[in-house]
Amino acid sequence: MRASRSCPLVGGWWRMLCLLACMLPLLAQGHEQALNLAHMFAPGSIPDQAAEHFAALVAARTKRVLRIVVHRAGALGDERDNLAQLRRGQLDFALTGNVVVSNFADKYRIVNMPFVYSSPEHALRVFDSELGQAIRGNLRSEGVELLSWHYVGTRMLTANVPIRDLRDVHGLALRLPPDSTALATWQALGANPRQIPFTELENALRLGRVAAQENPPHLIRTSHIYAYQKYLIATNHLPQPQLILGAGELLKRLHPEHRQIVLQAAREASAWATEQAKEEQ
User: Mean pLDDT across the stretch 159-176?
Assistant: First the structure.
């Protein structure tokens, strides 16, 4: 009898707690929340503008309840650091290259393989495919959501010596991103590659640690790589996708309306970036 008399009270408390838990996203909806987005690209570059476009759309559509602060130019580390920060819940959003995906497992290395993709659309379709679904699932299991993807240009080789054929590549001290697929490809072509993070590339070129590198022309220009290289070789070996990523726990906590706004804003920012890159390329 004693237990039965206490049940309504216990049930009442539980119902109240459940109600409060359900209301928390609603209560949070009206209070400004500052969120952080990081990337490693130069101020004014297409990825930087895409990040700002994303932030502006989210702020406008949530009436500034969600305010995204953009940390550019590697202020919070390179893309590998940013991915780790997302996984640990130390960062809310990141804009990265797709090399972070290819490093998850060998079966995903195809997304960053040179001399495979015939066009930007071909490279981007990977993320709409069955493989793309698997990639999103893998990221989700690591606490990261793939919100959108876009094209930033097609990678080309630059060097301090003219490159006319494969004989000129032999022994070339070539900077590559930290990615085993790119490393194996250029080693097979005879180069002497060195893996250097993008945030250290300009310094490596300035100090002569490498004599060549490869990136989309837009990033070569905005990151001032051209100041240390004499020749641009139109190898067009990889249309370069970039990704807008979000922390999984953050997206779960957001009010459903705000979550949808964030997803749509990321897609629109990526669509804008792709069009800008196509025009410039």
Answer: 97
Return the C-alpha torsion angle 18, 21, 27, 31, nearest 10: 170
Q: Which residues contact 129 (CB under 8 A, 6 or more apart)?
A: none
Which amino acid is residue 160, in one-letter code? N
Which pLDDT score is estimated for 13?
A: 52
pLDDT at position 30 is 62
Cα dihedral angle (92, 93, 98, 103), rounded to 10 degrees? -10
Span 121-150, pLDDT tens digits: 999 999 999 999 999 999 999 999 999 999
Indicate the pTM of the whole model: 0.88
Average pLDDT of 47-69? Answer: 98
Are 192 and 18 spatial neighbours (Cβ–Cβ below 8 Å)?
Answer: no
Mean pLDDT of the chain: 90
Q: What sign does the dihedral 82-86-92-96 (CA atoms) show?
A: positive
Say if residues 158 and 220 touch (Cβ distance below 8 Å). Answer: yes
Q: What is the pLDDT of residue 5?
A: 40
Instruction: Quote the CA–CA distance of 274 and 281 in Å, as a whole number.
Output: 10
User: Phi then psi for 129, rounded to 5 degrees?
Assistant: -90, 180
- The CA distance from 259 to 68, in Å, is 14
**What are all long-range contacts of 178-182, with beta carbons under 8 Å and residues at least 24 apart?**
178/80, 178/99, 178/103, 179/99, 179/102, 179/103, 179/112, 180/103, 180/109, 181/102, 181/109, 181/112, 181/113, 181/114, 182/99, 182/112, 182/114
Using left for φ > 0, alpha for ψ between -120 and 50, and beta otherwise, residue 89 falls in left
174: its two tokens: 């070539």
